[in-house]
Design a protein that fits this description.
Blueprint: E1 6-14, H1 15-28, E2 30-31, E3 40-49, H2 54-61, E4 65-74, E5 81-89, E6 92-100, H3 102-109, H4 113-117, H5 122-133, E7 137-151, E8 156-168, E9 181-182, E10 188-195, H6 201-208, E11 213-214, H7 219-228
Helix pairs in contact: 1-6
C-alpha cells in the first residue's frame, strides 16, 4: 500500500472563535460521517509505548522522524475498533490503519507478540515485533469530542477538538464510567488542519482571520505528562 504523507498543522483556539469557524466551514465543507445530530462525536484512544517511553520523549525532544501506535474507537462503540500507526516526518504525517477484531484487540492490549506475529495484517505483524524487542505496552487513555469537516480537493480535513481528558490505562479501555482528568483550560479547543498537496484558497480564506496560535501539540505527550506526574 502506498503511503500518503500529508501536511498537518495544529492550533490552540478559543471556544468563541471555534464556533465562528464551525459556522463558516459548515457552508463550505461536509461534516464528518461519524458526526451525531449536534455535529460532533466522541473519540477514545489508547496509546502504546515502550518501557523507556521512547515515543513520548522523542516528541519532547523534537525528533523529526518518529512514530506512535494507538487503538481507537468512536462514540463508545466497541464493535468498531481500529489500530493505527501515525508517523511524523517534519511537518508531514502519515497514518496506517487496520480494523481490528476482538481477538486482535486482546492480543494488542496484552502485548501478545506470538499471535500478532502470525496475523495477516503487516501493521499488526510489525507491532508484534516491537512487543518482542521493545516491550510495548498500553500507557494512557485519551478522550475528547470532535467536530470535523472534509473537502474533496486535496483531501482536506479540518477538526475541532474539545474537552480533552485522560486517564492511566488500568484494565478496560471500553469502560464508559472511566474517571478522567481534564487537560485543556476551559474555553480552549484544538484546531487541526490536514491536507495533501495544498490547502484550497476557499478554505485558507475561511481560516485566515480566525484568532489562533500554532502549537506543536501531541495529545499523547500532553496526557502522559499528566499521568506521570
Amino acid at each position: 500500500m502506498t503511503r500518503v504523507y500529508r501536511h498537518e498543522y495544529k492550533y490552540r483556539i478559543s471556544t468563541m472563535s471555534a464556533e465562528l469557524l464551525k459556522y463558516r466551514l459548515s457552508l463550505l465543507m461536509r461534516p464528518d460521517k461519524n458526526a451525531g445530530d449536534d455535529g460532533s462525536y466522541f473519540i477514545r484512544s489508547l496509546y502504546f509505548d515502550d518501557i523507556q517511553h521512547t515515543a513520548f520523549h522523542e516528541k519532547l525532544w523534537g525528533v523529526s522522524q518518529r512514530a506512535k501506535y494507538r487503538l481507537r474507537f468512536y462514540n463508545h462503540d466497541s464493535k468498531y475498533t481500529i489500530f493505527e500507526k501515525k508517523e511524523k516526518s517534519g511537518i508531514y504525517m502519515c497514518k496506517q490503519t487496520v480494523k481490528t477484531s476482538p481477538d486482535q484487540v486482546n492480543a494488542i492490549m496484552s502485548s501478545d507478540w506470538l499471535n500478532l506475529s502470525r496475523d495477516e495484517s503487516p501493521l499488526l505483524k510489525e507491532y508484534g515485533a516491537l512487543c518482542t524487542f521493545r516491550h510495548m505496552t498500553p500507557q494512557v487513555i485519551v478522550d475528547y469530542d470532535r467536530t470535523a469537516f472534509t473537502y474533496p480537493i486535496s483531501n482536506v480535513r479540518v477538526t475541532l477538538d474539545t474537552d480533552l481528558r485522560t486517564a492511566p490505562y488500568k484494565y478496560d479501555m471500553f469502560d464508559r464510567r472511566l474517571a478522567t482528568i481534564p487537560i485543556y483550560p476551559e474555553g480552549e479547543q484544538l484546531l487541526e488542519v490536514k491536507f495533501n498537496e495544498f490547502l484550497p484558497e476557499v478554505i485558507r480564506l475561511a481560516l485566515d482571520d480566525i484568532p489562533k496560535v500554532l502549537v506543536a501539540n501531541s495529545k499523547y505527550a500532553l496526557c502522559l505528562s499528566v499521568v506521570l506526574e
